Amino acid sequence: MNLNEEIINCRKCPRLVEYRKTREIPKRYSGEIYWSRPVTGYGDIHGKLLVIGLAPAFNGGNRTGRIFTGDKSSDFLISALYEAGFTNIPTSTSRDDGLTYNDMYITLALKCAPPDNIPLKDELINCQPFLIREIQMMDKLRAVLVLGKIAFDSYLRILSEKGINIKNVKFGNELYYDINGIRLYCSYHPSPRNVNTGSLKRENFIKFLREIKKYINS
């Protein structure tokens, strides 16, 4: 069984399994068959950039079966990645839409949709071995972009457990750190709340992504 098969077949977190089976499907998606399983990473595993998000949205990745696909967060993120040259198309609507990532792989700290988009620490720890293996598979990795504080904490937990000093590494939008040969970039999560309140501005985010692109190609 390969890594993606292991992820899809994982049932370690009863709360998450129960949630995706029992939560009511909105009327606008009635009749649609939801993926309702863990969601794997996607993209070029031999790329130089790893992007880590929080978890699949119930009506996004949990519905479509692909990370950052079919919801407002993905609309914002993929269009910005496209402007920075990381995708071949500016939208992510379904698993068969032809989207590909250029020189990057995107994954999640938690592979299952959590209630209220808030995972428990034990659930994140259960998922951590999957993220570790994804990082290990990225043999050309030069930079990691974390989307939000939970993704940031998950990545730093991995570094800390490897004995890497992270004492002075703090989360903040558009900050970056050079840690153990890998540059860590931090951004707010592209959630509708962050976008609608102006905490995450499209033009600034695109500029930040272009800076990342320039760095990994330097």
Descriptive tags:
single chain; 218 residues; alpha/beta; Uracil-DNA Glycosylase, subunit E; six-stranded mixed β-sheet; 8 helices; 6 strands
Major sheet: 6 strands, mixed
Poorly predicted ranges:
none
CATH architecture classification name: 3-Layer(aba) Sandwich
- State the distance separating the first and last CA atoms: 37 Å
Rounded to an integer in angstroms, the radius of gyration calculated over CA atoms is 16 Å
- Derived from helix and strand composition plus strand pairing, the structural class reads alpha/beta
Question: What percent of the residues sit in helical stretches (DSSP H or I)?
Answer: 25-40%
User: What fold name goes in the CATH topology slot?
Assistant: Uracil-DNA Glycosylase, subunit E
Write down how many β-strands occur, each being a DSSP E stretch of 2 or more residues. Answer: 6
Strand content: 5-15%
Return the average pLDDT rounded to an integer: 97
- Output the helix-strand order: HHEEHHEHEHEEHH
- Reading off the top of the CATH hierarchy, the class is best stated as Alpha Beta
The total of helices stands at 8
Tell me the strand order in the biggest sheet: 1-3-2-4-6-5
